[in-house]
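Q: Got a minute? One more chain.
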Amino acid sequence: MLLSDYATKTEIMNRAMATVPDLWPIGIDYGFSSVKGISPNKIFCYPNCAVPTTSFSTLLDCTEPDILLKDAEGLWIIGEKAHDIISPENAMNYESEMYERNRYFSPVFRALMKVGLGIALQSNYCRKYNGEPIMIQTGLPPEYKELDSEAFKEALAGDYEFDLKIGSNPFRRFKFSISMENIYIMDQPMGSLFSAITDKDGKQGQAGVRVLKSSTLVFDPGFKTFDIYNISGGVFQNSHTFDFLGMHEIFKRTIADMKKSHVTNITILGMQDALKKGYITTFNRRQMSSQNIPFDTELEKNTREVCIEAIQKVTSLYNYLQNHEYLIVTGGTGNAWFPIIKDYFRNMSSLTILSANCNDTQLSNTYSNVRGYYYYLVGMLKRRFRK
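A: Always. Here it is, folded:
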């Protein structure tokens, strides 16, 4: 992978999705690194970063990735531009707020939440939103779900009113409500399981049913957590969530390696900009000099180390996977780890390794959880309302 492939990007892709008449289903994933979403007319992603501001006066000539929000709590810069302007000093406070579980009622999280819902409700040439009831499917790490679901639902439910500007488009007013009973939360890796067995029409073919009925393990490394989800014969067996075995840990170790030999104040948030540039800038105060230092070697080393640690967790818990037939690898971190995982198990002919985006390879594996959320929700709503 290129360094830039590790960076969280902003993209909004118009696509007509399978849906349910007279309802507006939304699959949304409020991850620690990015917000991903799918609605009946689009697929989207933007970095999980929001910075309050007092004025948009210097920001109105926006480029395509720029997102601005006006709500009752103030003015907000969202996504890539927020990453660009946040200082190293403020980054530490931001990370402590947004990389923790109990973030649902913070103003920053609420701003990010509104933007995701606003993008999901925007009309385009694929479909127009006409005020249909909004149905939400999202997810949480398995070991967080029981404790955090109620708070997450309370944060999502309610009346919304805000203005949103994306790129060079003008501000648009949004006013809508979401009912508590229309919000559903599943285990995050279950989203990737459904993504791997569901085609572009939202149907499970014979190959998908075979995976579902087999001994299958979902291998879901995210930004902050690493989730394992185990099923056999179509029945959930168990799951595990590990903190500090994701991209956050890779960045943390890479920064520590760089600081051993260079003076730099780079933060986890600052890594996003460094990944796009391809280097970390160091500064020598005594000599009044700066230097751009590449870090691809350190990043590659730590990517491999953390991945192998995650694999060893799995093999120790599940008897070296000798009784499993499928291993489904998912997520943006899973993209970086996929070649390492394939190589590690290269001699296990009894184990088939699948990417969770195998039924929609045009879509990055980053979207696999939220793709599964969306198709699971659409299928459930069709059965419930016989539509």
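A: The longest strand covers residues 158-166.
Q: Perfect, thanks.
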